[in-house]
Design goal:
The structure is a homodimer. Chain A has about 270 residues and is of the alpha/beta class. The first copy, chain A, folds into 2 domains: about 100 residues, Rossmann fold (3-Layer(aba) Sandwich), CATH 3.40.50.10860; about 140 residues, Rossmann fold, CATH 3.40.50. Helix content of chain A is about 30%, strand content about 25%. Chain A has 8 helices and 13 strands. In chain A, the strands form 2 sheets. In chain A, strands 3-2-4-6-7-5 form a 6-stranded mixed beta sheet. Chain A has a 6-stranded parallel beta sheet with strand order 10-9-8-11-12-13, with helices on both faces. The longest helix of chain A is centred in the last third of the chain and has 16 residues. Strand 1 of chain A pairs antiparallel with strand 1 of chain B.
């Protein structure tokens, strides 16, 4: 992948990622390079804005006529929902958005693609989702999006574990009736061919493992949302047992394609 | 000059050029390349906004925390004055701004550098401003900025011609008392060592010449604001008579340095 992009010009289409803090975001580089590779005259730049000023900025950005799309990260994924004129079903269900593009009347169309990135990473690494019995640990924002993506991609069963029982039960209720057998579960991966960690456990040395690797089924596939370290203790233990794995970095890479496609209306 | 810039990242500083239309502007390319050459992690992108929506956009952009500067072009140079908390003296005198950068309290500091670009182009092409008797044809926005720059750079005398006598007289009054002998003049360049065209005459085939080249003094220096064609009929005639010349493209190139310096607070 090249490290440079063509210099912008007067016809360049503008894309921004809204977040606070912003210095850590990878999308400006990844998406701008993806646009350059596709021959698209567009650049995605970081846009740091506090929660208190978000509405004023977004009200103004409505009138930036060559602004075609927004990526949204922490802490604005829920607040940006109210700026959307239309939503994908998954964004509506999850109550949050991470991607916005213009409708023909210039209002914003919102989507939540955090789950699609994990799905892409699992499939790119050889994991099988359709028909699998899966365990999801973590029912927060990322976990909810991943749970919905797994159910809609055809898992046979999804057990959901979260230390916050109300959060867990809310996600279970949200995902029931969509074709999979969804239930509150424990952190025990016994019987699961697919295990996904969507908690922060594994970011810091000494974190407890979100799942006991000794209980992993032979041939189970294990995925983790954490990007740093790329190979978490859970993934290292899973690999040592011969399991296939998908990393948070893989999820991020798969999501770059999803994001670029959405922003370009593909 | 390289044709590419480093891909942006989460720490990239944002700069925008506000205008309508916007596709024709050269600053995104010129300034983004200049930033890259200087090792500055910043990108300047086009921002198309109508006059009616300008205030709402700028009110929002105040809260884009990594937005460090704005370039302003037609039709917003006068309207953007009211968004500036502080102004350079030349911007205050001219009542318009083409450059804004943040003050420490994040309010905008405005400048008008259109005249400095022409000054830089004349000097780069070997023209002498200090002590010269000069003729300025055209007292509009660009002409006013150039007139002020010529007076403040030490011309001995400045004759100003404009078909609109009230516009001409307003500029004469503005520039008097700053050290040069400033007066309303005709289009006759007799006695002038420096002649500047700041009218659109010369953009279209068949335009009348703004100044009669047959009347140019031997050794006079002639400058033109027009960028297309780069060598206007006036400049071609002046060159045929052995005069030194500065083009609108040269003015634009000189201004790129002025703009980059200002936006970076240099």
């Amino acid at each position: 992948m090249p490290e440079t992009i063509p210099a912008p010009d007067g016809e360049t289409r503008v894309f921004l990622i809204l977040g606070d803090p912003i210095a850590q975001v990878k999308a400006p580089r990844g998406i701008s390079l993806a646009f350059a590779e596709r021959g698209v005259n567009g650049v995605l730049l970081p846009a740091q804005v506090t929660a208190g000023a978000l509405d004023t900025l977004v009200a103004g950005l409505r009138y930036l006529r060559n602004l075609d799309g927004l990526v949204v990260t922490v802490p604005h994924k829920f607040a940006m929902l109210r700026h959307c004129a239309t939503l994908t079903e998954r964004a509506r269900l999850l109550g949050s958005v991470n991607l916005l593009r213009r409708n023909p009347d210039r209002g914003w169309h919102g989507d939540m693609s955090d789950g699609a990135g994990m799905l892409g990473a699992i499939e790119a690494a050889g994991g099988v989702v359709r028909g699998a019995r899966a365990l999801l640990v973590g029912a927060g924002g990322a976990g909810s999006a991943i749970g919905l993506a797994l159910v809609d991609a055809g898992v046979a069963a999804l057990a959901i574990h979260d230390e916050d029982a109300s959060r867990r039960d809310r996600l279970v209720a949200l995902l029931q009736g969509r074709g999979a057998e969804v239930a509150a579960g424990s952190a025990d991966p016994t019987g699961c061919a697919l295990v996904v960690n969507a908690t922060p456990a594994g970011m810091r040395p000494g974190d407890p493992l979100p799942v006991d690797p000794a209980l992993l089924e032979e041939g189970a596939f294990v995925a983790d949302v954490i990007t740093m370290p790329e190979v978490t203790p859970l993934l290292a233990a899973a690999r040592a047992r011969g399991c296939g794995t998908a990393t948070g970095v893989g999820m991020f890479q798969a999501q770059q394609v999803v994001i670029a496609d959405f922003l370009l209306g593909l």
